[in-house]
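Lab notebook, bench 4. Still working through the backlog of constructs that have no structural model yet. Next entry is a single chain of 171 residues. Request: give me the structure tokens for it.
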Amino acid sequence: MLPRLTLVGYRASGKSTVGRLAAARLGWPFTDADQAVEQALGRSIREFWAEHGEAAFRDAEAAALERILAGERCLVLATGGGAILRPENRALLRARGGTVAYLQAPAEALQARLRHSAGHRPSLTGGNVADEVPALLAARDPLYREVAGSVVDATRGTTLVADELHRLVAS
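Model written out:
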């Protein structure tokens, strides 16, 4: 298995925050897929989404995942919450993502986090970002589980989650 740790899960599950901590523990570089997409696009996801729509964003996201997961280098990758929507992305994550962990949290916890910091995230349904969580999470949960070798409770403190991720990779 490739020496990698890939984090999947709904937005606000802590993939970027915990991914940075796990990368530091492992001594591996950290990559945030959403930041890689924004860098490639030269603008924020929210701006690109508003101008070009979800399908064009998902194309850019898939291309970024291909670039990030090419080669053999060690890394910790925090994917975007919807990266698992495309079957080809799920296949890529299973084949090239190394240890894939689903940071799972109940809808209520994710809603609370998004109410606190949803400003830069585009609505996926045209409604309130926090209000859309239950329906979207219900649809995505099976896809996160499909690609992940482990499910990690993301409601515990970031240090505990990062420690668990480190153990998953180190064992």
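Notes after review: The mean pLDDT is 91. Residues 45-69 form the longest helix (25 residues). Flag for follow-up if needed.
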